[in-house]
Amino acid sequence: MVYRYILFNKPYNVLSQFTENRDSNHRHHTLKEYISVDSVYPVGRLDQDSEGLLLLTNHGQLQHRLTNPKFAHPRTYWVQVERIPDITALKQLQEGVTIKNYQTRPAKVKLLSVEPSLPPRNPPIRFRKTVPTAWLEITLTEGRNRQVRRMTAAVGFPTLRLVRIAIAHLRLEELKPGEWRDLNSTEIESLKQI
Fold first, then answer.
1. pLDDT tens per residue, range 85-140
2. If we measure between CA atoms, which residue out of 18, 108, 16, 28 comes closest to residue 54?
3. Prediction pTM value
4. Which of 3, 25, 88, 161 is deepest in the core (most CB within 10 A)?
5. What CATH number should be reported for the domain whose range is 1-72+169-194?
6. Does 47 participate in catalysis according to the annotation?
7. Residues in CB range of 28: below 8 A, 6 or more apart
8. Where are the chain's structural domains?
9. What is the reported pLDDT for 22?
10. CA 116, CA 59: separation in Å to the nearest integer?
């Protein structure tokens, strides 16, 4: 079997799946509209309202290793939050917070001094003149459902925009929203070492 490894920059409002939910009255955008490669599947997920790096493959064993929590590979996000987090909130995020009766693993968290260079989101986030926003860089080694959003909300700073910029050593870099590319041989070998 020939294995494929694809990096995709998932736009906002796109489901991390190839088929539409038939029980929904609303039409949703899916990966099928962007990726025409047969038999590849996402390694993990990004929610419909999250953006950024998604890895797809038809290599089942690698997919299992990258989604199994015991292998704990890092995933890095740029997170725009409502208001400016204080040192106490940042420390809580770093040490782990309790969400839905679960204590998250420690995370790397830093307040970015400059807003990251990202394409505008369509539709844009809600803007309120009286409420400032800030950007955090958060690196997790686990990936529970809506975890970043729940973590920032738990410390009082709701997420407004969430963009995954890295999965282990793989980076979003030059991929624009909706674009994809195959991994090169060096990236594939590094991925297999995780």
1. 999 999 999 999 999 889 999 999 999 999 999 999 988 888 888 889 999 999 99
2. 16
3. 0.92
4. 161
5. 3.30.70.580
6. yes
7. 13, 14, 15, 20, 21, 48
8. 1-72+169-194, 74-167
9. 65
10. 33
Task: Give the H or E element holding residue 60.
Answer: helix 60-67
Strand partners, 136: 79, 111
- Determine phi and psi for 176, rounding to 5 degrees: -85, 160
Enter the tokens of residue 100: 């839905």
Tokens of 139: 């690196």
Taking alpha carbons only, the member of 146, 134, 143, 128 closest to residue 87 is 134
Q: Given the structure tokens 């029980």, which residue do they identify?
A: 23
Is 74-167 CATH 3.30.70.1560? yes
Query: Side chain identity at 155, as an amino acid letter?
Result: V
Task: Report d(CA 100, CA 40) in Å as an integer.
Answer: 32
- Active-site position among 23, 38, 47, 49: 47
Query: Residue 90 contacts by C-beta under 8 Å, 6 or more apart in sequence?
Result: 109, 110, 111, 136
Mean of the pLDDT values across residues 156-179? 95
Give the distance from CA 78 to its chain's centroid: 9
The 10 Å Cβ neighbour count of residue 165 is 20
